[in-house]
Amino acid sequence: MHGPAMSGWLLVALCVVAGAYCLARTRSVRGAERRAALDEALMGFGMAVMAVPAAAVAPPDWAWVVYAVVFGAASLRALWSALGGTGHHLHHLVGSLAMVYMALTMAGGGAGAHAAHGAHGTAGGVPLVTGLLLAYYTVYVLVTGARLVPAGPAVGPVSGPAAGPVGGAGSRWAGPEVALACRVSMGLAMLAMLVGV
Fold first, then answer.
1. What would the pLDDT profile of 23-46 be if each residue is shown by its tens digit?
2. Which of 51, 59, 128, 184 has the most Cβ atoms closer than 10 angstroms to its Cβ?
């Protein structure tokens, strides 16, 4: 969030693409999976807006409060879903709370806010909450990314454009592997944003 403008714009592009994919995926899924895709789209677009380099567009001070309110409401929704649902809602809860944390940190003055929340405990110069979130997202990216690695060599001949782990060429874009890759991308983007807090 405080890095060079080029890496900031690349982060914005990654988050916009991930958010757009998740939004498009809502058309092909139903029920809890559709709600999860909507939550991921909100996260992707929210991260994109938050990652815009300040040198290009400096948000007004009140914008950070709006981010905190929006993602605070998303946190409550994720908590409600997690109480009666699956473990993936817990990930959405952590993500929404991380967005609230970053918004409040930025509202407190960005890099100068390190002194303010440094008083709440630090881990080697890194604020405790930032360190915990960095650890969580590192593990999340590694575990989710490992699920993308093929279990073994393909059995049988592979031929034509329809060959692949999820069927035809059209279904490749809506398959579970693409959704996992999207989640890994957003996890990496969150790591990059947390490093800049």
1. 998 888 888 788 888 889 999 999
2. 51
Residue 185: C-alpha distances to residues 15, 36, 58 (Å): 8, 16, 25
Asked if residue 161 lies in contact with residue 154, where contact means CB atoms within 8 angstroms, the answer is no
The residue type found at 159 is S
Distance CA 123, CA 127 (A): 6
> Residue 38 in contact with residue 6, Cβ under 8 Å?
no
CA nearest 68: which of 101, 116, 42, 44?
A: 101
Q: Cα–Cα distance between 30 and 35 in angstroms, integer?
A: 8
DSSP string, 62-89: HHHHHHHHHHHHHHHHHHHHHHTS-THH
User: What is the largest distance, in Å, between two alpha-carbon atoms of the chain?
Assistant: 61
pTM for the full predicted model: 0.77
Q: How far is CA 18 from the centre of its chain?
A: 9
